[in-house]
Design brief:
By secondary structure, the protein is an alpha/beta fold. The protein is built from 8 helices and 7 strands; from the N terminus they run E-H-E-H-E-H-E-H-E-H-E-H-H-E-H.
Amino acid sequence: MDKTLWALILGASSGFGEATALELARLGYNIFGVHLDRRAGLAHVEEILRQIREAGREAIFLNMNAADSDKRKEAITRLQEEFQKKPGTVRVLLHSLAFGTLVPFVGENAVTEQQMEMTADVMGHSLVYWVQDLVNGGLMESGGRVFAMTSSGGRRVMPSYGPVSAAKAILESHIRQLAMELAPKGITANTIRAGVTDTPALRKIPGHEKLLESALQHNPHGRLTTPQDVAAAIGVLAQANSYWITGNVIGVDGGEDIVG
């Protein structure tokens, strides 16, 4: 019996996660979304669910902290229960968690040890724990695709971006290691480096206006990257014939990085 294909999206309620959930639903995937939103954001989540279901796909969204180990186990259990009812497999995992501390390393209001560790855990280490649970639990099998969202800030410096920059560097390192360890299992792992994109996460970065202005000036296409650009690329990379693409940082930016 063929198994139903699912995509597990961490950070599914906005930005890259939202766009990818909708794109993969259009391509035939059921969507299991994990997000963290206050009550005011839940109406938008319902709109995303409506669009997924209108595409003829199933959708399960859980409002929880994806970096909390107990909540992660709760989500994994929910997936297992779903697969017991109807055999399925997680073909795509997207790690798109954008929750970190944006403060300087030194001086007034410098980053604390707790803030640094929280940022690294949420935006970096949590990827490994989700992959462990999926693979060890038999929820992701040969043909699986692991994607994690990074940024050019992982190798550049910006005011107050240090903790997030470090977390992105951690994330890229984890993807390289996962690519090596998952290769014998037929699972790929790649990092997606989007161009500057006007998302809720970007708008939290101090001086984001300058980032947007610079990207508009430098991008050869004369416009910013959109979440839909990134989602379309992930849709292509999720296909079965992308099996030899693994361990990379893949730029999805319209050429912005080569001239920026």
